[in-house]
Specification:
Blueprint: E1 8-12, E2 19-24, E3 32-37, H1 45-56, E4 59-64, H2 81-90, H3 93-108, E5 113-119, H4 121-130, E6 138-141, E7 160-165, H5 173-186, E8 190-195, H6 212-231
Parallel strand pairs: 3-4, 3-5, 5-6, 6-7, 7-8
Antiparallel strand pairs: 1-2, 2-4
C-alpha cells in the first residue's frame, strides 16, 4: 500500500470488477488494521470521518464500498432510504464474503493484527467477517438481520462486541436475545452492551437519532475492546 498519510481510495480485485475502499492511514501506526463497514448509505462523509477517527488512534483503515457491484461510489441521503434499498437487496453472502476477504488480506500484509467494526447493515457485515477470517476482534453496532447469519456462529474466529439501543424499533429485544443465545450455544466469546436511552443509529452524529452519551461510551468501549484483544 502507498506510504503517504493522506486518505485515499484503494481498488481491490473482485470477481465482478475492482472494489473501491476508502483508505485512511495513521500518522503513527499502532500496527493494527481495521475494516470499517458502512451503513446502508454508502461510504459517505460520516463513514470517511469515522475512518479518520480510527486512523488518529493508530489504525490503518479500509472502508469498502459494499455496493460496488450495483452502485459504485454510492452515497445516499439519510432521508431517502428507498434509494439504498435495491442495493441492499442485491447484496449476497458470497459477494460480501469476497469483499471482506479482500480487505482483510490487504490489511494483513501491513498490519500485525486486524479488527473490524460496522454499523447497521455494516454491523451484520462485521458479524459475518468474524466468521470468515481470523480478526482479533469485531464490533457490531445495531446490526440488522443477524439472525439470518446464525448458521455462521460456530465459525466465529473473533470475540464480538455488540451494541444495541433499547429504543431501537428496528431490532426488538427478542431478536437481540436470539443472536446472543446462538453465541452461547456455540461457546463463543462476546460482550453485549445495550443503551437504555438510545435508538437505532445512535452512534451517527449526522442523523437525528444520534445519542451523544451512548455514542461516547460506545467509542471508548470499542477502543478498549480492540486494545484488549489485540494485546492478549
Amino acid at each position: 500500500m502507498p506510504s503517504s498519510a493522506q486518505p485515499e481510495y484503494l481498488h481491490l480485485p473482485s470477481s465482478s470488477g475492482d472494489m473501491a475502499a476508502f483508505h485512511a492511514r495513521p500518522a503513527t501506526s499502532n500496527g493494527r488494521g481495521l475494516v470499517l463497514f458502512q451503513e446502508a448509505f454508502g461510504v459517505n462523509g460520516h463513514i470517511r470521518e469515522l475512518a479518520g477517527r480510527f486512523a488518529r488512534q493508530g489504525y490503518e483503515v479500509l472502508a469498502p464500498e459494499l455496493f460496488h457491484r450495483t452502485a459504485p461510489g454510492f452515497a445516499g441521503s439519510y432521508d431517502d432510504f428507498s434509494s439504498a434499498l435495491p442495493h441492499m437487496q442485491a447484496l449476497t453472502q458470497a459477494g460480501m464474503s469476497e469483499d471482506i476477504t479482500a480487505c482483510y488480506d490487504a490489511l494483513a500484509r501491513n498490519c500485525d493484527q486486524v479488527v473490524c467494526s460496522g454499523y447497521c447493515m455494516g454491523g451484520r457485515a462485521a458479524f459475518l467477517a468474524a466468521s470468515l477470517r481470523p480478526f482479533r476482534a469485531a464490533a457490531s453496532y445495531y446490526g440488522g438481520s443477524i439472525p439470518s447469519l446464525l448458521d455462521r456462529a460456530p465459525h466465529l474466529q473473533a470475540p464480538v462486541l455488540f451494541f444495541w439501543g433499547d429504543k431501537d424499533t428496528h431490532i426488538p429485544a427478542a431478536q437481540r436475545e436470539q443472536v446472543l443465545a446462538a453465541l452461547r450455544a456455540a461457546g463463543k466469546s462476546f460482550t453485549d452492551v445495550t443503551f437504555g436511552e438510545a435508538g437505532h443509529a445512535f452512534f451517527n452524529d449526522a442523523r437525528p437519532s444520534y445519542h451523544p452519551a451512548s455514542a461516547q461510551q460506545a467509542w471508548a468501549h470499542t477502543l478498549a475492546f480492540f486494545d484488549w484483544h489485540c494485546s492478549h
